[in-house]
Design a protein that fits this description.
Layout lengths: L1 H24 L1 H6 L22 E5 L10 E2 L7 H13 L4 E7 L4 E7 L6 E11 L3 E10 L8 H13 L8
Parallel strand pairs: 1-2
Antiparallel strand pairs: 1-6, 3-4, 4-5, 5-6
Length: about 170
Amino acid sequence: MKTWVTIVSVLAAVLLSLSAAFFAVGPDRIWRMFGDPDLGPVSFETLQRRMTPNDALACPKGLCRGFSDIESPIYPVAAQDLRPEFARVLQTEPRVTLVSADDATLTSRYIQRSAWFGFPDTIVVRFLDLPNGRSTLAIYSRSRFGESDFGVNRTRLERWLKKLTLYVEPVN
């Protein structure tokens, strides 16, 4: 019995030391050892979804090649006016960093990190004009690490789209 107590105590001490080192060094620096947290841009028209369940896609009908988890709403404003309203949504979100913004294509890329361990997820958002001064958007959120995200990416997209309705009410 004494041997088991010693083994458990040593394992607990090692785990505690590793946890302390992880938080002392910082999650961002630790995860960067495994590569850039930003997974880069995507082309929604040619996007191929992952084989693992750690991504989510909100896309308007007819744009995305990959299976869409959520059909994007249509908004009664031009894409250039929808983009700043979406930026207001992201101001309410914790741990979001803008990585890239392309004004010509109305595309932005973000990293959002998990609360405890700082796992990075890359989110690409593209705003699209529609006829009659309306617009929509495509959003692809994917995890940098892990085989499964336990629904985090899809939940994020649903939450962001719901928050967007506080600023711009969809027409559909």
